[in-house]
Amino acid sequence: xxxxxxxxxxxxxFNGVAQEITGQQLxxxxxxxxxxxxxxxxxxxxxxxxxxxxxxxxxxxxxxxDLPAQKFSVAATRDSVITIxxxxxxxxxxxxxxxxxxxxxxxxxxxxxERAVFMKNYYTYLYGLPMKLKDEGTHIDPKVExxxxxxxxxxxxxxxxxxxxxxxxxxxxxDPISYKMEIxxxxxxxxxxxxxxxxxxxxxxxxxxxxxxxHMPKVRKWYYNKDDKFLGADVITK
Length: 238
Description:
Blueprint: H1 2-20, H2 23-34, E1 44-52, E2 59-66, E3 71-78, E4 81-88, E5 91-98, H3 110-127, E6 138-140, E7 145-149, E8 152-161, E9 169-174, E10 181-187, E11 201-211, E12 214-224, E13 230-236
Antiparallel strand pairs: 1-2, 1-13, 2-3, 3-4, 4-5, 6-8, 7-8, 8-9, 9-10, 10-11, 11-12, 12-13
């Protein structure tokens, strides 16, 4: 009976929190947890990320993010091939090397330069969360939902974006006590802007890596929404 009462109390507490707090308020609380000193906008730092995917060699990426100077670079190594993408304000560069034939130099294409910009946006977005949800063009739903995911209760914020930013809809799952971000999930949308339920992925976050006063998730594990198939993991190794 005591156990049942505890469950009812916890459920009522979560419901009350979700009803009383807005999406922006929850986001502010989460940012205080992950970036307590407000360092993100002046962030300059290096990190190494090792990505592992089923049936493929690991890829090691050495990343520089320098927001004040508007600089970004990633040197990705898989097997003997090193690809370096760099963005310096509006300028991009790509350098590809095969250590087995170092005298051969690959020619970069427009697609490679587009890829450099994509890599910059990708890494600064994912490692800048939840702070990046304050960016222009991001729309935070004022309603906070309470959801159970993998047996745990979360407070969930929904984010959508201006057309120029992207058409995916994202959901961010926060611990209702600590406000730590533990999961994010995205879905594709159709031509009417409705979510495609079998699309997209969810990403489980664990551990923490402290860099320049910012608590970044150390481990990210990616899965398909439609069937929970494991896609891969990336770990901050330095």
